[in-house]
Amino acid sequence: MKIDIVTIFPEYFAPLDISLLGKARRAGLLDVRVHDLREWTHDRHRTVDDTPYGGGPGMVMKPGPWGEALDALVPPPPSDGLGNAGAPADAAVPASPGAPERAESGPAPGAVPRLIIPTPSGRPFTQADAVRYAAEPRLLFACGRYEGIDSRVAEEARTRMPVDEVSLGDFVLAGGEVAVLVMIEAIGRLLPGVLGNADSVADDSFAPGAMESLLEGPVYTKPPVWRDRPVPDVLLSGHHGAIARWRRDEALRRTARHRPELLRRFAPDDLDARDREVLRDAGFPVDSEGVAD
Description:
Elements: E1 2-7, H1 19-26, E2 31-36, E3 49-50, E4 60-61, H2 63-73, E5 78-80, E6 83-84, E7 114-124, H3 127-134, E8 138-142, H4 151-157, E9 163-167, H5 177-188, E10 225-226, E11 229-230, H6 240-258, H7 260-263, H8 273-281, E12 286-287, E13 290-291
Parallel strand pairs: 1-2, 1-8, 7-8, 7-9
Antiparallel strand pairs: 3-4, 5-6, 10-11, 12-13
Helix pairs in contact: 2-4, 3-5, 6-8
């Protein structure tokens, strides 16, 4: 997978050089290139923001630098038979001196990317999105700051690439960099070869399939007894069917306790008799309409 990141703080992405994603980059499984938006400014102060039309507090990121950055990374298609309307496909992209060591200066080559813009006003980012994005050949992340990026940037980008505006949750950050780090880790760990055991993602909270609307239950490792607290006997039994049933029961209980709204996604046919018994015991009786609290 190829990923481009545009930001005014390239150094924010140093964590992409460590742990699983750092190994994935060194192994050639993940090609991440970080670009400094200020390289597409033309004034002495390298200005990327201005006051908002209509008044109000805060500043808005200017469309000019963003437009030039996107043109360089995703050259516009030819407008006529004479050549491209924007930068040529092999246009050089300025280096990012503060970017992580392994970041390269040119655009990630290949297919037209999906542009992802983190914003509190976007739709929620979910595990399903992570799975979908992990199947894309190339992604481009735009890290906004201040009150956000001038809305015309996303509008214009949609004429030549898919654009998603996504949110991590109902809260506001100082900028998009943290959100992009979160999304890249969620996506990157799903790429083939990144995790030591590819099957481990199947039991993740929200994983497609049996866990899609459930939180993962409690987990244990050695020793079997720690500070007078034993591991549940079923996990030591070697009975794979019983262990799988216990894990689903615990996932149902934990979801009922911490995220009850997720249970409303279940249709009646999604739950077997044991599921219904567990939910009733947890205080969430199942009726003909699904789960009710």
